[in-house]
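User: Reviewer 2 asked us to show a designed sequence for the structure in our supplementary figure. I'm pasting the structure tokens here. Could you produce the per-position amino acids so we can include them in the response letter?
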């Protein structure tokens, strides 16, 4: 199992390396190979949201705040401050007005749907943290973080 996946990895790396080199020769330079989104390991097949430049910065700042919220939740749990963790989850990840406004600015229904489900999971996380149950809280955090992972795998700016 392990051996096989290593072989597949090496093979994929070789083939994509070759494809990239070919692309560079054909199109005269790194730029096309890296930015064109076609061919080799530089391919990014995620759905683009086509965000305008100003929204890009705004969205990334919100995302960094999400990451920090997860960090604060973990740190509060470690200090047995479940109420504090719950508050952060409700305010920074839950489906409150501020969060909903952010998601609704992005004009892609599938993205909005995923964003809404994510914020609902933030509500559940806040509720679960309130109970002070460590295992259930970690499960709920895992559930919320699954939305981070799957949205990032599906969409790009
Ligand atoms: C509904 C979709 C969605 C959800 C849910 C989501 N993100 Fe993102 N996030 C994005 C998109 C789109 C980008 C831009 C990625 C790109 O263009 O490559 C992004 C980018 C980021 C970045 C990069 C910020 C930067 O400055 O470069 C971080 C960090 C991040 N997200 C953290 C998180 C965390 C943590 C969570 C969950 C708690 C989360 N995101 C949930 C869509 C989402």
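Assistant: Here is a per-position design you can include in the supplement:
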């Amino acid at each position: 199992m392990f051996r096989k996946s290593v072989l597949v990895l090496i093979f994929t790396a070789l083939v994509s390396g070759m494809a990239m080199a070919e692309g560079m020769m054909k199109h005269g330079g790194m730029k096309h190979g890296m930015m064109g989104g076609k061919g080799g390991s530089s391919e990014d097949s995620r759905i683009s949201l086509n965000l305008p430049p100003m929204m890009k910065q705004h969205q990334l700042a919100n995302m960094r705040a999400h990451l920090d919220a997860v960090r604060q939740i973990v740190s509060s749990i470690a200090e047995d401050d479940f109420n504090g963790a719950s508050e952060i989850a409700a305010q920074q990840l839950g489906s409150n007005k501020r969060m909903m406004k952010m998601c609704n600015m992005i004009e892609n229904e599938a993205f909005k749907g995923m964003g809404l489900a994510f914020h609902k999971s933030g509500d559940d996380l806040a509720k679960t943290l309130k109970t002070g149950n460590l295992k259930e809280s970690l499960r709920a955090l895992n559930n919320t973080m699954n939305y981070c992972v799957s949205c990032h795998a599906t969409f790009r700016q």
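For the response letter, you might also mention the following. The chain has a mean pLDDT of 82. The pocket of heme C is lined by residues 49, 60, 63-64, 66-67, 70, 93, 111, 114-115, 118, 144-145, 147-148, 151-152, 155-157 (CB under 6 Å).
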